[in-house]
Amino acid sequence: MATKQHHTIPPVAMQVGAQDGASESWLSRRTQKCKLILPGLVTSAVVGVSASFLSEHYGAPVMLMALLLGMALGFLSEEGRAVAGIRFTSSTILRIGVALLGMRITLEQIMSLGGTLLAVVIGGVLLTMTFGVVLARILGQSRDFGILSGGSVGICGASAALAISAVLPQDKNSERNIIFTVISVTALSTIAMIIYPPIAQWLGLDARQAGVFLGATIHDVAQVVGAGYSMSDETGDTATVVKLLRVAMLVPIVFSLSLLLRKRSDGPRAALPLPLFIIFFVVFVAINSSGIATPVIRDFAVSVSSWCLVTAIAALGMKTSLKSLLEVGWRPATLLVSETLFLATLILICVHWMG
Length: 355
Fold this sequence. Notes:
Elements: H1 11-58, H2 62-72, H3 83-100, H4 107-111, H5 115-138, H6 143-165, H7 174-202, H8 207-217, H9 221-231, H10 233-248, H11 250-264, H12 276-290, H13 295-318, H14 322-326, H15 330-354
């Protein structure tokens, strides 16, 4: 009688097979996710490219163009294949862009300003945010909107608004408030770029004083550069360094907000004391300060950061309807204009005091 032979699979072979299966499963999940987000990501990128084209050829602010074009395609975020990618772009790509902003800054640039000027710039950021929170409550707006608007005005415009929004609690009005803030600070920054240089000349500010005034008050980096170098090279250099110090304030501000929100919230947003994209921001500042990165690498990182932010803004625009923006009312606009005037007045007083 023939006996049956039982073949057993060696344990090692079983482990290898399990690992292969797990690897294939992980790869399959990654592939499926990429297919899911690709349509929305590509759509957002195309809108970003279109916005950049309009900005370069017609002089319009690229962030504003990306927002408006995105809003025109808002139907894509409601249903269809692009929904997941638009959501991914407005969150993950946004954080990548903010993290890479660190490649614009070095510790040497910050320390070159001197103690007094450092105190003035940092104090301007903190006082503007405090003013924003207080005035927001007076106008019947939420404290979080006061933080968002005050941070965008005090730090670096649209980029700061996006970074701060990433750690604020989300509610039904969050995206509307972000878009409204970005549109408002971009418009106000463009106006400031035009009228602040004549104001500096009218007040008799010298090149360094004018650079401090422009760098410490205009919201977006591009407008600071445009306004500063329209006056003189020295004014432009000073304005740019002062502005980069304000950009560097993203780290302590977002870190502090994260700690406060950790105490206020029991949700997953409070799990880490510091968002990962801010940790990478600090790492990139350290890399840029150490001189490890070549100018080519640094320029590439800054370019990628700009593209990420423009693409993310386009995606946020797609997620926001014009109708919801019109429902915001006059109070938020009053808040942002008042914060802008407060910061400009404060810095002019400090510049006059410093001589």
